[in-house]
């Protein structure tokens, strides 16, 4: 049986990118595999978080995941800091991963920017903790957006080096499951950067909490070009903003970018944007309503998350114990 693990940071309000690239794809997996879904608050503090806001973002993220279709009868949903084995295995992996490996991580370079001396050391070793998140459950399938592919390769390097250094066959190989159509939703302001909930300098992103007017406004402002849409995908080469909007419409309407172009070829963005807005609003409105309903009873939500943590702990604890034995603790 496959065991699936995936995580999402409560580092802001979940975006359309998180939804199309990750959350939405988790829903059908619940029926096929044993699934663990985690709100990764330990990762969130790699960048400064206001404590009250972190707590409310954590709840909001959990509510979002449920509103998007995660079902507590079919999966385990919990908060990372509630299961100590993540941080414990993360330390072991800090001692397995090599500086050179982490130095190659493009997400660190993106997030640290020119500020390399000032970012937290946690941001640098973040991929080691991500490896621990997965391997502490011996999970073998990880659905993520394309932005996380390099981190998963690193997780496999860590697992292999651990197995090799200690002469064991203990940690499994992880298969990334990069999802097709909207594996990377780009920023509406700059089609060469990914849409991210945790980029404070870019407010163009569509949040799952946005109402219809706000969605319309953000799509209206989205950067485009003066050309009309072509009838084939290859012709969108060099037009990243146009490519992104076409990809988003394809993803929310459950079709392909090719099919979107077949339908809208010859239209300019003045005509295309209202179509996109309409599709987004009708798709996201029910999710937003359910999220708001769940947040009216935070006590019930917290209790569900505690139950989830107990279920997760029951799997992680024996694997951590065995790891400690292997290491010599
Ligand atoms: P963020 O960068 O928005 O803070 P996270 O690091 O919490 O996102 O990632 C949560 C999940 O959402 C991961 O599986 C990641 O691959 C996916 N994801 C994040 N941003 C995007 C995006 N712009 N397009 C597609 N998937 C994304
Ligand atoms: Na990220």
Automatic annotation (TrEMBL):
Its EC number is 6.1.1.2. A motif ('HIGH' region) lies at residues 10-18. One of its GO terms (molecular function) is tryptophan-tRNA ligase activity. GO terms for biological process: tryptophanyl-tRNA aminoacylation. InterPro entries: aa-tRNA-synth_I_CS, aa-tRNA-synth_Ic, Rossmann-like_a/b/a_fold, Trp-tRNA-ligase, Trp-tRNA-ligase_bac-type, Trp-tRNA_synthetase. GO terms for cellular component: cytosol. CDD domains: TrpRS_core. Transmembrane segments: none annotated. Homodimer. Belongs to the class-I aminoacyl-tRNA synthetase family. This is Tryptophan--tRNA ligase.
């Amino acid at each position: 049986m496959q065991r699936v693990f995936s995580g999402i940071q409560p580092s802001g309000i979940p975006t359309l990118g998180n939804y199309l690239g990750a959350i939405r794809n988790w829903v059908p997996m619940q029926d096929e595999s044993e699934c663990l879904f985690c709100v990764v608050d330990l990762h969130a503090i790699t960048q400064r978080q206001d404590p009250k806001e972190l707590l409310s973002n954590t709840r909001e993220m959990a509510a979002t995941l449920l509103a998007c279709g995660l079902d507590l009868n079919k999966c385990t949903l919990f908060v990372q800091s509630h299961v100590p084995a993540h941080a414990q295995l993360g330390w072991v992996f800090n001692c397995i991963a090599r500086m050179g490996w982490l130095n190659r991580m493009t997400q660190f370079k993106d997030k640290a920017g020119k500020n390399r001396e000032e970012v937290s050391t946690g941001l640098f070793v973040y991929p080691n903790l991500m490896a621990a998140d997965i391997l502490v459950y011996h999970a073998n399938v990880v659905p993520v957006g394309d932005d996380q592919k390099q981190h998963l390769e690193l997780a496999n390097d860590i697992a292999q080096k651990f197995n090799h250094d200690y002469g064991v066959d203990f940690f499994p190989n992880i298969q990334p499951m990069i999802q097709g159509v909207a594996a990377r939703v780009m920023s509406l302001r700059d089609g060469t950067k990914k849409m991210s909930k945790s980029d404070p300098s870019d407010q163009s992103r569509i949040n799952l909490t946005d109402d219809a007017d706000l969605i319309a406004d953000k799509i209206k402002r989205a950067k485009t070009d003066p050309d009309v849409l072509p009838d084939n995908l290859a012709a969108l080469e060099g037009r990243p903003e146009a490519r992104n909007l076409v990809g988003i419409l394809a993803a929310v309407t459950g079709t392909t970018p090719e099919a979107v172009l077949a339908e809208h070829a010859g239209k300019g963005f003045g005509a295309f944007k209202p179509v996109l807005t309409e599709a987004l609003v009708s798709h996201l409105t029910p999710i937003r309503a359910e999220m708001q309903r769940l947040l009216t009873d935070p006590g019930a939500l917290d209790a569900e998350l505690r139950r989830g943590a107990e279920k997760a702990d029951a799997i992680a604890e024996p694997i951590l114990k065995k790891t400690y034995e292997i290491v010599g603790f």
